[in-house]
Amino acid sequence: MNRRWLRVAALLLMAAGLMAPVGAGGWQASAGALICAVASIVCAAAGLRRWDASLERGLTLLAVLLGAAAPLILLAGPGPFGAAAPGIWLFLVGWSLVLWRALSILSHMPRRGVGALAAPAAFGIALLYLWQVVVVGFAVPQVLLPTPTQVGHILATRLDILWPDFHQTFLKAVLSGYAIGCAAGFLVAVVADRVPFLGRGLLPLSGLVSAVPIVGIAPILVMWFGFDWQSKAAVVVVVTFFPMLVNTLAGLAAADAMQRDLMHSYAASYVQSLMKLRLPAALPFVFNALKINSTLALIAAIVAEFFGSPILGLGFRISAEVARLNVDVVWAVIAIAALVGSMFYGAIAVVERACTFWHPSYRA
Amino acid sequence: MGPVAGIVAAIIVFWYAAAVWLNAPQVIDRFKSDEKSWTAGELIDATWSMERPVLPAPHQIAQNLYETVFQTPISNKRSLVYHAGVTVSSTLLGFLFGSVLGILLALGTVHSPVLDRSLLPWIIASQTVPILAIAPMVVVVLGSIGFVGLFPKAVISMYLCFFPVTIGMVKGLRSPDPLQLDLMRTYSASAAQVLWKLRWPAATDFMFASLKVAIATSLVGAIVGELPTGALAGLGARLLSGSYYGQTIQIWSALFMAAIIGVALVAAVGLIEHLVARRMGKPA
Q1: Facing A201 at nearest CB: one of B3, B129, B265
Q2: Which of A61, B2, B119, B128 sits at a 20 to 30 Å CA gap from A228?
Q3: Is the ipTM reported for this complex over the cut 0.90?
Q4: What DSSP letter does each residue of A72-138 carry, written as one string?
Q5: Which of B134, B136, B258 has the CB atom closest to A213's CB atom?
Q6: Segment A229-278, tens digit of pLDDT
Q7: Model's pTM, two decimal places?
């Protein structure tokens, strides 16, 4: 019943949108938009009757696609839009309700393979679409917020300047700093585990460090190591060290007493029980730290570039283009950073799956 | 306490040694240009009392902290208490926004399968956007549409700290035993009743754990939000002006102030957690 009312509300809002003014010419001026809008409403209304489930799903998805096209066609025409065109926004609110239904259909798809990605992908595309329509419709100045298409255009055409930035920040600073920081954190944790005095002293202190804004040491390290990528790598080392230390220490304590006793009864040496029992048991914790560090490292390197860098690097690009009000380039850099961060994270998650396939969280 | 004190003492000794090692080249240059002969004692003494050292000695930082905190009136721009106050107020505002947003998102995610499937992946992906990196731009853009002062910095803190709260609260609100949820169903409890009488109390432990993480990241957000050159006050502005003018002692004392504030804020959340746990009748 609830779901039905949602549908009716959606239809009423979309129909009201057809009545209200939408810029200079109105709906009549653009035959394409009118056809799409009416077809979308018809599809959504047809979904109200109790057909079989698969037909209802198809109609809903069709209603979403057609409904998305109508405002785009309208906005390509003559203005004024924004508050002068309430029809578009009423229509879009109704459309969002249909979208909600479509998302709930997609989220019932099987959780394996492509089905698992359908709902989040549709949600992301819908967000980008609404961003585009709102920015174009309300004529938001490009200085404040560019449209996704403008950002995409920069990404496609300005790779010649963006690639060296990526190379400088990610391939040089982040990867080297990440490797050194994680390795150092891991080794210190193993040593601290072996020497209880060190462990008992370091653990409370590292907990303390997690409450401290470590990024603040960036200006100091830039003074020490110079403007080039080495200073950014140094910041990344410091930022990634402590999460790795804390997680590995927790992981080395994760093997339970029965298992340790078993190793003891085998007369296993320290190294044997470390390599065969405790390090494998610590792997989920180590990977947790690797994942946390993957995003931390990128952010730390970019922030460190604000305190001085040669004339390339993602952070340098952001601060330089903000000053020149080229906000579309800034957003393109942000998109790159987000994409690289997600891929870095995803790559570690894949390796984690391969290495810790035995862990209960993957066996379900 | 023994091991911690031992490690801290070792760090301080190491720090003094590093100060000598890093500052010595400059000091030696100065001695040479003065054509003065020097002894090892004079060299060490000089490296520990430079005006703009590469690495200030701990007592120099402590002295600077003492001067700027206790011996400067709070109204003065050189008072570290004044700058810390600016940073703390935007930290707390952002923490408030972020916690409310995080809890709302978690409630939505737990109660709507659609949000769970379509929104949650994007919440995780949102954290790969280097918001700290675009913080200066956010401050500039919000400033240009009329939001100045605390609000833009609080927005950055909010963006950083809603995430741990959402993730922790989703876990917490789902932590009740299926048996307990079934019991609520046999009572024919409404969704709101299940939330208030079962899910919310079960989530408090998770909530405080994530609030501690959130308030620490909120502080980082506030400090980075102060980095744009427009910001005149706050610990971030102290860091930036210190790095422009090579005032290393000023940078380090701002850093230590930030560390003290971070620890104090986390401890404050821990205290509230303790009080709430006692009020809920949980064993300490």
Answers
A1: B3
A2: B128
A3: no
A4: HHHHHS----GGG-HHHHHHHHHHHHHHHHHHHHHTTS-SSTHHHHHHHHHHHHHHHHHHHHHHHHT
A5: B258
A6: 888 899 999 989 988 988 898 888 888 888 889 999 999 999 998 888 88
A7: 0.80
